[in-house]
Amino acid sequence: MHHTPRWAVIWACVIAAGLLFVGVSAHVTDLLSHGLHPYDWAPGWLNLYWSSLALFDMLAAVFLITGKRRGIDLACAIMATDLAANWYAVYGIQHSNLAAQPGLQRLIAFAALVLGAAPFIRRHLTT
Protein backbone atom coordinates (compact mmCIF):
# COMPACT_ATOMS: atom_id res chain seq x y z
CA MET A 1 0.00 0.00 0.00
CA HIS A 2 2.93 2.33 0.60
CA HIS A 3 4.03 1.87 -3.00
CA THR A 4 0.80 2.74 -4.75
CA PRO A 5 1.85 4.78 -7.79
CA ARG A 6 0.87 8.44 -7.62
CA TRP A 7 -0.84 8.23 -11.01
CA ALA A 8 -3.07 5.41 -9.68
CA VAL A 9 -4.05 7.49 -6.65
CA ILE A 10 -4.86 10.48 -8.87
CA TRP A 11 -6.92 8.41 -11.30
CA ALA A 12 -8.82 6.65 -8.52
CA CYS A 13 -9.69 10.02 -6.98
CA VAL A 14 -10.70 11.53 -10.33
CA ILE A 15 -12.89 8.54 -11.25
CA ALA A 16 -14.54 8.41 -7.82
CA ALA A 17 -15.10 12.18 -7.83
CA GLY A 18 -16.58 12.03 -11.33
CA LEU A 19 -19.01 9.29 -10.32
CA LEU A 20 -19.91 11.18 -7.15
CA PHE A 21 -20.72 14.20 -9.35
CA VAL A 22 -23.06 11.94 -11.34
CA GLY A 23 -24.78 11.20 -8.03
CA VAL A 24 -24.93 14.91 -7.20
CA SER A 25 -26.60 15.55 -10.54
CA ALA A 26 -29.18 12.81 -9.99
CA HIS A 27 -30.00 13.90 -6.44
CA VAL A 28 -30.21 17.59 -7.32
CA THR A 29 -32.48 16.77 -10.27
CA ASP A 30 -34.73 14.76 -7.94
CA LEU A 31 -34.77 17.63 -5.42
CA LEU A 32 -35.65 20.21 -8.04
CA SER A 33 -38.31 18.02 -9.65
CA HIS A 34 -39.92 16.46 -6.60
CA GLY A 35 -38.66 18.16 -3.44
CA LEU A 36 -37.30 16.32 -0.40
CA HIS A 37 -39.53 13.27 -0.99
CA PRO A 38 -38.94 12.23 -4.61
CA TYR A 39 -39.91 8.57 -4.11
CA ASP A 40 -43.51 8.23 -2.95
CA TRP A 41 -43.05 4.48 -2.40
CA ALA A 42 -40.18 4.98 0.09
CA PRO A 43 -40.48 6.01 3.74
CA GLY A 44 -39.68 9.61 4.64
CA TRP A 45 -36.36 8.83 6.33
CA LEU A 46 -35.12 7.06 3.19
CA ASN A 47 -36.20 9.96 0.98
CA LEU A 48 -34.40 12.40 3.27
CA TYR A 49 -31.26 10.25 3.24
CA TRP A 50 -31.20 10.13 -0.56
CA SER A 51 -31.89 13.88 -0.77
CA SER A 52 -29.02 14.58 1.64
CA LEU A 53 -26.66 12.86 -0.78
CA ALA A 54 -26.86 15.94 -3.02
CA LEU A 55 -24.73 17.66 -0.39
CA PHE A 56 -22.64 14.73 0.86
CA ASP A 57 -21.72 13.46 -2.61
CA MET A 58 -20.60 16.99 -3.53
CA LEU A 59 -18.47 17.32 -0.39
CA ALA A 60 -16.81 13.95 -0.93
CA ALA A 61 -16.07 14.76 -4.59
CA VAL A 62 -14.58 18.16 -3.78
CA PHE A 63 -12.44 16.69 -0.99
CA LEU A 64 -11.19 13.96 -3.33
CA ILE A 65 -10.32 16.42 -6.08
CA THR A 66 -8.39 18.55 -3.60
CA GLY A 67 -6.52 15.49 -2.31
CA LYS A 68 -8.05 15.43 1.15
CA ARG A 69 -8.21 12.19 3.14
CA ARG A 70 -11.67 13.09 4.42
CA GLY A 71 -12.87 12.73 0.80
CA ILE A 72 -12.17 9.01 0.66
CA ASP A 73 -13.43 8.58 4.23
CA LEU A 74 -16.70 10.32 3.38
CA ALA A 75 -16.99 8.45 0.08
CA CYS A 76 -16.62 5.13 1.94
CA ALA A 77 -19.30 6.15 4.45
CA ILE A 78 -21.60 7.24 1.64
CA MET A 79 -21.09 4.05 -0.35
CA ALA A 80 -21.66 1.77 2.65
CA THR A 81 -24.82 3.55 3.74
CA ASP A 82 -26.17 4.12 0.22
CA LEU A 83 -25.63 0.48 -0.64
CA ALA A 84 -27.46 -0.58 2.53
CA ALA A 85 -30.30 1.88 1.85
CA ASN A 86 -30.72 0.77 -1.76
CA TRP A 87 -30.46 -2.91 -0.85
CA TYR A 88 -33.21 -2.39 1.74
CA ALA A 89 -35.33 -0.49 -0.79
CA VAL A 90 -34.97 -3.20 -3.45
CA TYR A 91 -35.46 -6.23 -1.23
CA GLY A 92 -37.43 -4.93 1.75
CA ILE A 93 -39.77 -2.42 0.13
CA GLN A 94 -40.01 -3.21 -3.58
CA HIS A 95 -39.61 -6.99 -3.11
CA SER A 96 -37.41 -7.10 -6.18
CA ASN A 97 -34.02 -8.67 -6.81
CA LEU A 98 -30.56 -7.70 -7.97
CA ALA A 99 -31.06 -9.02 -11.51
CA ALA A 100 -34.01 -6.65 -12.02
CA GLN A 101 -32.23 -3.57 -10.68
CA PRO A 102 -29.45 -2.20 -12.93
CA GLY A 103 -29.14 0.86 -10.68
CA LEU A 104 -28.27 -1.35 -7.72
CA GLN A 105 -25.83 -3.29 -9.89
CA ARG A 106 -24.02 -0.07 -10.81
CA LEU A 107 -24.02 1.05 -7.19
CA ILE A 108 -22.42 -2.24 -6.12
CA ALA A 109 -19.68 -1.79 -8.73
CA PHE A 110 -19.03 1.79 -7.59
CA ALA A 111 -19.01 0.75 -3.93
CA ALA A 112 -16.51 -2.00 -4.74
CA LEU A 113 -14.28 0.54 -6.49
CA VAL A 114 -14.38 3.05 -3.63
CA LEU A 115 -14.14 0.57 -0.76
CA GLY A 116 -11.52 -1.52 -2.54
CA ALA A 117 -9.31 1.42 -3.50
CA ALA A 118 -9.59 3.28 -0.19
CA PRO A 119 -6.83 1.42 1.68
CA PHE A 120 -4.43 1.94 -1.21
CA ILE A 121 -5.02 5.65 -1.71
CA ARG A 122 -5.96 6.96 1.76
CA ARG A 123 -2.42 7.25 3.08
CA HIS A 124 -1.40 9.28 0.00
CA LEU A 125 -3.99 11.98 0.68
CA THR A 126 -3.51 14.91 3.06
CA THR A 127 -5.35 15.37 6.30
Residue fraction in strands: under 5%
Assembly classification: single chain
Number of extended strands: 0
Distance between the termini: 17 Å
Q: What global shape is seen? A: globular
- Nearest-angstrom radius of gyration? 15 Å
Biggest sheet statistics: none
Roughly what is the average pLDDT, rounded to an integer? 94
Which bin fits the share of residues in helices? Answer: over 70%
Structural class: mainly alpha
Instruction: Count helical runs.
Output: 4
Describe this structure in words.
- The structure is a single chain.
- 76% of the residues lie in helices and 0% in strands.
- It has 127 residues and is an all-alpha fold.
- Helix 1 (6-34) runs antiparallel to helix 2.
- It is globular, with a radius of gyration of 15 Å.
- The two termini are 17 Å apart.
